[in-house]
Description:
By secondary structure, the chain is α+β, with helices and mostly antiparallel strands. The chain has helices at about 15-25, 40-45, 110-130, 150-155, 165, and strands at about 5-10, 30-35, 55, 65, 75-80, 85-90, 95-100, 135-140, 160, 170-175, 175-180, 180-185, 200-205, 210-215, 215-220, 235, 240, 245, 265.
Amino acid sequence: MPTFLFWNINGKQIDELIVSLALTENVDVIVLAECGLDPNDFVIALNRTRLGYEYAPGLCERLRFFTRFDNTYLGLTAESDRVSIRRLMLPGRDELLLVAAHLPSKMHFSGASQIFQCVELRTMIEEQETKAGHRRTIVLADLNVNPFEEGVVAAGGLHAVTTRAVASRGQRVVQGTSYPFFYNPMWHYFGDRHESAPGTYYYEKAESLNYYWNIFDQILLRPDVLHGFRNDGVRVITQIDGQPLLDNSGKPDVEGASDHLPLLLTLHF
């Protein structure tokens, strides 16, 4: 029952918060975006009270991987400036493809350009699935687009849908081409919830169209891993060991933590 943590920490030196979350939740794989922490120092901090964490290095500086597994079990298969794809090969278990991504923000890319970034990510994923010979794939990412936007939903994009029932069909054919589904459990986190925040990222601007709360940080699951996913298997974290990650106005605490909230995924496989 591995547990995965994804957090865009916005370049903040919040190593003690991450360590506390990792230890409290028994996290097995940590993926950090916009991480300015020194990997060696962070591993020392992780192992201060519990030995076993290792740094799993790669060439993508936007994404850092740390794991309680032997880092050779988290083999690098493909990387770009914004994407890192690893093969998680645990003894006695089916191999998983673990995809981490940090796509360009709306401040620098147009909506159309963001769609093409999602298309490129989908192409990269499918290439590695073909090489691996399976589609047991999970994505942990700051996509910088919401679950309802074209790049995430479209067949030629990530093709991530709202329900397990639809995703469990495996794929659909559009104009003679077959497109595999992802299941996107993040739809469940929009709006008011007592146990969570109404999204993972808050942005307010003086324009007619303003969503306020966004879910840019997402976990996507291929149908081939859904048998090991329970409905409470994804959590948006709003406090760590009693310290709130939201400020007094209920928005992400940019000063004390990050402008993004962390995600936890627990998967049985």
